[in-house]
Amino acid sequence: xxxxxxxxxxxxxxxxxxxxxxxxxxxxxxxxxxxxxxxxxxxxxxxxxxxxxxxxxxxxxxxxxxxxxxxxxxxxxxxxxxxxxxxxxxxxxxxxxxxxxxxxxxxxxxxxxxxxxxxxxxxxxxxxxxxxxxxxxxxxxxxxxxxxxxxxxxxxxxxxxxxxxxxxxxxxxxxxxxxxxxxxxxxxxxxxxxxxxxxxxxxxxxxxxxxxxxxxxxxxxxxxxxxxxxxxxxxxxxxxxxxxxxxxxxxxxxxxxxxxxxxxxxxxxxxxxxxxxxxxxxxxxxxxxxxxxxxxxxxxxxxxxxxxxxxxxxxxxxxxxxxxxxxxxxxxxxxxxxxxxxxxxxxxxxxxxxxxxxxxxxxxxxxxxxxxxxxxxxxxxxxxxxxxxxxxxxxxxxxxxxxxxxxxxxxxxxxxxxxxxxxxxxxxxxxxxxxxxxxxxxxxxxxxxxxxxxxxxxxxxxxxxxxxxxxxxxxxxxxxxxxxxx
Length: 486
Description:
By secondary structure, the protein is α+β, with helices and mostly antiparallel strands. The protein has helices at 4-7, 37-59, 68-87, 89-99, 135-146, 172-189, 204-212, 223-229, 241-258, 289-299, 327-333, 413-428, 450-453; strands at 28-29, 113-115, 118-120, 153-154, 237-238, 269-272, 286-288, 309-316, 339-344, 351-357, 360-364, 370-371, 393-396, 403-410, 437-439, 469-470. Strands 1, 2, 3, 6, 8, 9, 10, 11, 13 and 14 form a 10-stranded mixed sheet that branches. A two-stranded parallel sheet has the order 4-12. A hairpin with a 2-residue loop joins strand 10 and strand 11. The two termini are 23 Å apart.
């Protein structure tokens, strides 16, 4: 089975000068800031050098002690080997990082970028100026690079009684969900304005958050413990957004029961918002204020009436593809100060969507295989580079899978009230097809059903069961990395 990394090239941009091109990620848009004229000049000269190098290999003459056939075989074998290196992923990354190869990337518009509740204005007095060169875009990149990145890992201790020591080709939804919860912890402990530091020692809270997401049973939010908490999850199985949200709810409750309030790894209540049939039949979820309050009281053991709360809202916004009427509503959720982004991506490829511009989304991609890293909670000198991304990736919202989940973090009662006000306003603008609604109690209003509005002529299926779908053997690369609509 090919991993997402196998199908694309992951590229970085030194000094924020490179953003991936659409050719690197099929179906997604990536871009490269900076002028093309200078890059073209540099590329031409370097390309000439590379062509000359190939010519030299072709003209190589073997010593006369070899026969003509032996010489030809060795010459062509060596040349073919070098060419494979030159056109391979390593050389492509060399071109992109060193030569500044100019690709046909899309251009960022002058519209505002929203990244997890923060707006970055790219407009300039000079309408002809490149928005990528604006101060707003530079601030956006700094914010994007500070978001937590969780990717495939290899080389960790076997999960449970299985033989899986890697989550390659099946763990993308788990990694995407880890990223969302990690952002909630960052917002809670470090604040929304926190940015990663290049200097050491690093912030203790930052290191402790990373430690929580390590790849061992000792790390509270590891892939090991998520699988143990999920009733229908097992190593090597794909999982959808709804089941993933319920798994986090179960894990949080288990840790809450085992730990004193002041020592909670997840210092907030968790509320999975659902609709009719507990969300399994496609009903538009209803944020029930009374339920949220109950979750907060249970989390605090009755000590307080309200606590910080993490809301997860699983949605199904279509059958084969997302209904276009929901796209503006999804984009609008990123303007909420409480926004934690979206668990979603292209069909079969789960990602973590963190921002939007117009109808395009910016996302973090878990489909890169990295060696396991053990971040000790007291190691303030740790190398944390593998937990951040310096490649901006973009995808059209109309291409994302209709099965997704939205996250929100509310610091307190006032913040929750503000969220409810914004959500109610958004529902009022939905022309009868809201993403979700808000009600004082679950019996105070009947939510609209997505199955009634998502497709004009779609058949509604009554099967509300769901199951984890096993992959092939971990070493078999023939399967696609897919997650089911749950």
